[in-house]
Amino acid sequence: MNSNLLKLQASALAISVVLSGCTGLPRSGPGARDVDAGALVKVTTKDRKVGIDYAVVDITKSILTSFEKPAASSIKDSFGVARGGIPSIPLGVGDVIQVSIFEAQAGGLFIPSEVAGSRPGNYITLPSQTIDSSGTLTVPYAGRVKAAGRPKEDVERDIVDRLSNRAIEPQVVITTISSSSSEVAVTGDVNSAGKFPVTSSGDKILDVIAAAGGISSNSKETSVTLQRKGKVGTVSYDKLQNSPAENIYVAPGDTILVNRERRTYTAFGAAGLNGRFDFDETDLSLGDALGKAGGLLDGRADPAQILIYRTVDRKVLEGLGVNTSHFAPGAVPVIFRANMRDPAAMFAAQKFHMQDKDVLYVTNSDSVELLKFLNIVNSVSTTVSGVSSDAVTTRDANRALF
């Protein structure tokens, strides 16, 4: 009786030592108590609460329509120019142009009578010139003419007005030889980034991306950003291809950034595989994400507690009837919870789409935590029993020697 009591007391003592984090036990680094005791300054909260408010939303039939697919951005909505026509292309600094001047008959300012028969037509073409940094070009007898920022037709009329008192019914034609001012820059994940001229026939976003050799990454993870005079709009490449309203005309000076955004989610807990996983070239549902992470571990997972951590636009939550007035302005942290014990949840999991940077956590079953404790008790009890047996063996051996 006393022997059994001694064993129980030893077991209780050993368990208490284990549960209190005895420094005599092996470990790979400092324990929580060591870290806490060694800190010169501690910044903490009561019960070490993180302090981030969040909402819990169960994945049910009523919410699926709001989360079937991620919200798509739009260039059309950002610029509001989907109905606009081909943008005008004005002359600009650095453009190389030619000016041709026509007169109604020989004997005028530019076509003397004595040379009229030696040239075809009553016109002259001035040497090519570059619109200088002040934005002007030079025409004999008309002087310096403001050209940058003006359509060719306006500049032609201006030159005609200046020559009308000296030339015979003058007419002017301006021809653009090269136009560095009407280029669009295309950069990022394209095969041949660079600057490309905007033609007078009009070029759309996909036209200039094609001129840059097309995208160099998969379309599912590629977005296109248009920058124009301080305004910015972004759209997914797939939406740009499939929605003609998004494929708007580009204008001189635009910058188009093609960017691949690697879409990933993180899975940990009682899933078959833990780590970061790529979406690759597909849109993943919750069911796909669980399968990609190896499913649930039969011996550990609680199927009723599948959690997805995500920040959600407060307008989406308000559309579901969630009171968001208690949260700080901006997106709201949300934990979505799926009960996979319900057979119908399998259908919901195929309609609830994952989003970039989601965190998928599979919780342990309550029974797992109990088994952990029982394993510790069993391990300690076995150890104490072994120690008692060793003590008896040692005592008997000593008696045999003496």
Would you mind describing this structure in some detail?
The protein is an alpha+beta fold and 402 residues long. The chain has 3 domains: 47-70 and 283-367, Roll (Outer membrane lipoprotein wza fold like), CATH 3.10.560.10; 75-86 and 181-260, Outer membrane lipoprotein wza fold like; 96-178, 2-Layer Sandwich (wza like fold), CATH 3.30.1950.10. 29% of the residues lie in helices and 24% in strands. The chain is built from 11 helices and 17 strands. It has helices at residues 2-19, 32-38, 64-67, 75-79, 152-163, 205-211, 237-242, 286-292, 314-319, 345-351, 366-401; strands at 55-58, 96-102, 123-125, 129-130, 136-139, 143-146, 171-178, 183-188, 194-197, 222-228, 231-236, 255-260, 264-269, 275-278, 301-312, 332-338, 359-364. It has a 6-stranded mixed β-sheet. It has a 5-stranded mixed β-sheet with strand order 9-8-12-10-11. Strand 13 (264-269) and strand 14 form a beta hairpin. Helix 1 packs across helix 11 (366-401). The longest helix is centred in the last third of the chain and has 36 residues, at 366-401. It is elongated. The mean pLDDT is 83.
